[in-house]
Amino acid sequence: MGVINLVASFLAGFFLGIIKNKFYGFVILFFLASILRTISGYFISKMEDLEVKFSEERRFTYWQFVKRIKESNFVKYVFFISLFSFAVNIAAPFFSVYMLKELKMSYYGYTIVTLSSAISGLIFLPFWSKEADKIGNVKIIKITGFLICFVPILWLLSKNIFYFILINFFSGYLWAEFNLSVVNFIFYVASEEVRTRCVGYFNFTHGFFIFLGTLLSGWLATHIPFVINNSKLLTLFLFSGILRLIFVVFFYDKFHEVRQVHLLDSKMFFYSIRCKTCFGF
Fold this sequence. Notes:
The structure is a single chain. The chain is an all-alpha fold. The protein has one domain: Growth Hormone, Chain: A, CATH 1.20.1250. It is built from twelve helices and no strands. The two termini are 23 Å apart.
């Protein structure tokens, strides 16, 4: 999936770079995407579902799920990820706007910056899938989540495209391990009987907070004061980074690993991250 996304993004960026009429370029891309999704839907229709066994006493409503936030490890985890994504999506819609509108970056340059994140994720994902098995998903979520807080703040330091490529490469490296562990943790913490319901409640809560974050970002983009380099968007990036950090610190000790893993303190984990970033091992 990662390779396909990488190739598709590169081809789309290249196409927009060579076509003169950008409006028709986007029309063509959207039409092509629609056709491909229709074909994808055909293959989904051919899939067969797996039988899931469950008992009536294991059923619970969404509100019963939310009310257990004080004692439930999983509910605390759901709200941490959801609030973190809320903070992330305050800035997420506007990195493209910042590069294309404020910096007047070409579509070629924009595509390269964007793809650097995807390439990084593909390179390091195999390493971190093994790491998550050894030290646990929660440790990875907490440490990478902490580092992700500083990614939007790094955008304030330079306007050089090579600097953006480097930042996005580091960002893709962090997000690859963060997203992998976010999904993996659900499969460990939820039993088979309630896993589908737990995933559904997680996705609903997570999606709702992403919606709120994106909605708020649209309002802030026009109302937030010019604080950083006479740019509202850079100020928005700073606000997003600070809000991410607040949620990470608040929830840091609120949820825990549910399986036995190798103990590794945070200092050694940071060293592991630094080695893998610089040397790939």
